[in-house]
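User: I'm writing a tutorial on reading structure tokens. Could you give me a worked example: one chain, its sequence, then its tokens, then a sentence or two explaining what the tokens reveal?
Assistant: Sure. Here is the example chain.
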Amino acid sequence: MKSSIRYLVLACLFFPFILLSCKTTGTGTPSSLTTAPPPPAPQQDKDVAKDVSEPADDASLAELARARAAAEESRSLARYVDSEVYYPDDWKAAETRYGAAVKKDKPATKPEAAAGVTEWKAIGALYDGLYQKAAAQFVRDQEKKLAAARERAVDAGAEDIVPDRLAMADDKADSARQRFQSNDVSGSIREGREAWEKYGILETLMLARAKQVEADENDFFAVDPDNYLLAAEAGNTSVDHFDSGNLPESRRLADEAYAGFDQVIVNGWTSRVEVQASVARKWRDASREIKAHVAARSDFAAAETVYNQAHVALRARDFTDAMDLFEQSGILFMAAHDIAAEKRQIAEGALQVAAQKLAESEEKARNADDLIGGDE
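And here are its predicted structure tokens:
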């Protein structure tokens, strides 16, 4: 029985291109010469002239399209076996010719279309030659790539959670190896490609599952239920396509599941970080309002440094660090605010004392004036 990956809402497991020629003929007496009417042009010449100027029709364009499609397929195969890595000069020459053909691949006449067909066939032959040269070397390197892909899938949890599906990928890898040993290079590449794709899908599905577990442990479903449910559905459907052999669709949905759960994680942590960030902003604004950046310059500068570090951590998705840093900066801004407030209070008290003394001095001066005035 196959093990199953099922994305369950609020649960830990889930699951996945004419010359006209004039000829004179003598008749009668030598002095009696007449010009005979020109004979009809040869039918072949007429056909050539007609063909030279005749616009390209649907049939010629369809033939051109087929030739280009075949060349594109040959190019794709040559690229897949890393021809540009193994034979860079030959690849560059083929790519230069390919690019030139693409630029003039809009023929106006039949001869131009026919020339295009010939050129695309020649380009396809270049890529076919590259494929033949690079394929065997690629298969040898493919073995290493498959081993690395399998290791990544195992590290992500495939061996423990979906051993049956991992075995399906292993069977394809074994088949690729056996075909190569039987000199079936193209079959080996085909089987290896499928194995590599299966390993990659399983890795992504396992990583998506880990994201779901993190979301569940932190109750982030409550923060972003829509993305959570969409991601779970994508994961489940990806698994169904994996089992049915529709690997392209399984890959697309596995990526969708991972991205969806990842967004849930981002939104969940961001909401928590925002709690601390809002406290830090409140004390930062209050500190600036009381002129702490002037009255308690060094303390405010220290708080501002930590506050900026928190934003850097948040952009880097170091959410726990961002929370801690925002909390620290809030405490530091509060301290700078209190220092500035204390200094303001002291300054205001000194002003009150000075004002009181000034008032007393003015009172004494008035009294003295009254005494002096009385003596007079």
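What the tokens reveal: The first helix runs from residue 43 to 53. Confidence is low (pLDDT under 50) at residues 9-36.
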